[in-house]
UniProtKB/TrEMBL annotation:
Enzyme Commission designation: 2.7.7.12
PANTHER family: ADP-GLUCOSE PHOSPHORYLASE (PTHR42763), UDP-GLUCOSE--HEXOSE-1-PHOSPHATE URIDYLYLTRANSFERASE (PTHR42763:SF1)
Residues of the active site: 166 (tele-ump-histidine intermediate)
Keyword match Transferase: yes
Record domain Galactose-1-phosphate uridyl transferase N-terminal: where: 3-176
Family: Belongs to the galactose-1-phosphate uridylyltransferase type 1 family.
Residues that hold Zn(2+) according to the record: 40, 43, 113, 164
Boundaries of every Galactose-1-phosphate uridyl transferase C-terminal domain copy: 189-302
Keywords for the protein's UniProt record, in alphabetical order: Carbohydrate metabolism, Metal-binding, Nucleotidyltransferase, Transferase, Zinc
Species, as recorded: Singulisphaera acidiphila (strain ATCC BAA-1392 / DSM 18658 / VKM B-2454 / MOB10)
One GO MF term attached to the UniProt entry: zinc ion binding
Protein name in the entry: Galactose-1-phosphate uridylyltransferase
UniProt keyword DNA repair present: no
SUPFAM superfamilies: HIT-like
Amino acid sequence: MPELRKDPIVGRWVIIAHERAKRPHDFTGEAQLQAEGSFCPFCEGNEDKTPPEIVAYRERGTRPNGPGWRIRVVPNKFPALKIEGNLNKRGEGIYDKMAGVGAHEVIIESPQHHISLPELPEENIREILWVYRDRLVDLKKDSRLVHGMLFKNVGSAAGASLEHTHSQLIVTPIVPISVWEEMTGSLEFFNYRGRCIYCDMVQQELSTEKRIVLDTSHFTAFCPYASRFPFETWIVPKTHSSHFENIPKQGVDDLATVLRQVLGKLELALDNPAYNYIIHTSPFDHQELPHYHWHIEIIPRLSKVAGFEWGSGFYINPVPPEDAAAFLRETEFPAAPTPIISQGTGLA
C-alpha cells in the first residue's frame, strides 16, 4: 500500500509508492519510450493487457474491454495511490503520515498508436474533455478524496514511458502544495483588490496583446508574464470558474478548439517537443471560489531544471514570453480532420 508522508518544514506531502519501483525503466536514468514497433498495451485489440476499463466511449454494440472504443479509462497498472482502504491518519514522533488512498487512472485518448492529441479531430478532443469532467464528478463523491489533478506527459523528457497518446488523473486525499500556494496567493489578491487575479490577468493580456497566443469567445491562451520555462503557455477561461468539472458544453466545445490549436502550434513550431500539461482546479470540498480560477498550464520540456532552480526556487528562462507568444501566434496549424466517430455512438 502506498503511503503519504508530510514534510514538517514546508508542509509538502510526498507519496512513498513502493510498488511503482516495479515499473520498467525505473532507476535506469531518464525515462525512455518503448522501442518503435514494440508491444503497446494501449492499442486496440490489447484491451486484456490493461486493468478492466472504468468507463469507455465506444461504438454501440461493442462489449466492454474489447475493440470498438474511442476513449478508454483504466486504473493505472502501477498506481501512485490506491482507491481501497481507509486513510488511517497517524503520527510518528514529529511526523505525520496516512495511507496512500486515492485514485490513479489512465485516459487512453485514441485506439490509434501513431497519433498525437492535436492530430485528433475536435469532436474526439471534446470527448476527452468530457471524460476528464465525468471522472472528476464521479470521484468527488468519495468523501476520502479532496483534489483531482489531470495531466498529460508527452515524450520521455516529460516523464512518459509509453508513446501511445494518453493522459492521467491522480486524485489525492489532501490538497497538493502547489495548488494550495496558488489558492493562497489568489486569496491574498482578492482580499486586497476584491477581484480574481486570473480574471485580471486575462484582461491585462488582452489589453496589451504582447503575450497572446490565441483568443476565442470563451478562452485566452497566453505565455505568462513570469514564464518559468521557454514557451510555457496557459489556457484560461474568460468566464470566472474555480472548478474544471463545472465546465459547460459550450466551454468544452471551445476548449477542444483552443487545446488542439495551441498544442498543434507548439508541436509544429518546436519540432514535436516533449511537454506536460496540467489542469489546475479547485479542491472537491470547496464550493465555487470567487478568488481562484481553473486553468491549464502547458510546459514544453526545452530546458532542464538544475541545481540552482532546485535549490533556490528561481527559474532561468532564456526565451522572453513576448517572443515566444509572437512565434506561436504566427505559426499556422491546419484545420481539424474528420472525426473518428460514427452515428449512433454510445457510452459504455
